[in-house]
Design a protein that fits this description.
The protein has about 220 residues and is an alpha+beta fold. Helices cover about 25% and strands about 20% of the residues. A hairpin with a 2-residue loop joins β3 and β4. It starts with a helix and ends in a 16-residue tail after the last helix.
Length: about 220
């Protein structure tokens, strides 16, 4: 499942390639992943992409007068391809932009959802982004105690901190046991809050310094091909 660092990589690459360009064609490979009140081509063709942002595990594409919000869920990934390149079987949606580039949404289990012109369920309930937290250790501790949940579960609670999934939560909490946040030791709280902050060793976030690899596990970031 894409987590905050992977979503940031996707957002920056897509924005660099497509912001300012107009949608000239829409090709739907599987309508199961789509949520819209009108055919997607009617909604998007002719609109210019103005912004690409992300909040938690959602990517938001801001077009002229309309937003498209994508929740990739378990297996959703994006691909930037030249028009005419062969599409894989798991390609669910293709947006062709002027200049000959397609943005492709792929999802081999069809769990993700693409909301075009509609509000995405859960988006308004998201907590602050994990990668941009400004909480102090004492603030983090106070909020964690109020939740009274297991540390790993707390970090995956998207209303508490958005963008953290199982992999990062397990590493950040340092345990798979049932230690509760209201009884966590000071060192554990320090590790949790420190793991959600951009490193101070460089002006670039850790995932940028690591050239696309997870700064904690060294695994290659997944999500944009």
């Amino acid at each position: 499942m894409p987590e905050w660092p992977e979503l940031r990589v996707m957002q920056e690459r897509i924005a660099d390639a497509l912001v300012g360009k107009k949608v000239v064609a829409v090709r739907v490979g599987d309508p199961v992943v789509l949520r819209a009140e009108k055919p997607v081509d009617e909604l998007l063709v002719g609109r210019t992409l103005r912004t690409v942002t992300h909040h938690g595990k959602f990517l938001v594409f801001g077009f002229d007068g309309l937003e498209m919000t994508v929740n990739p869920m378990l297996a959703g990934i994006f691909s930037l391809q030249p028009v005419g390149a062969k599409a894989t079987k798991d390609t669910r949606l293709r947006l062709e932009f002027e200049g000959g580039t397609e943005l492709r949404y792929r999802d081999d289990v069809r769990m993700g959802k693409v909301y075009v012109g509609l509000d995405a369920p859960g988006y308004e309930d998201l907590g602050p982004d994990a990668g941009t937290l400004t909480w102090t250790e004492s603030e983090f501790s106070a909020r964690a105690k109020a939740k009274r949940s297991e540390v790993r579960n707390l970090l995956q609670d998207q209303t508490f901190v958005s963008g953290i999934g199982n992999a990062y939560a397990t590493r950040s909490s340092g345990t798979r046991s049932s230690i509760r946040s209201d009884a966590s030791a000071r060192s554990r709280r320090t590790r949790c809050i420190g793991s959600t902050r951009p490193s101070g060793r460089s002006s670039r976030p850790a995932w940028r310094r690591s050239r696309g690899r997870c700064p904690r596990s060294s695994a290659r970031s997944r999500g944009l091909t």
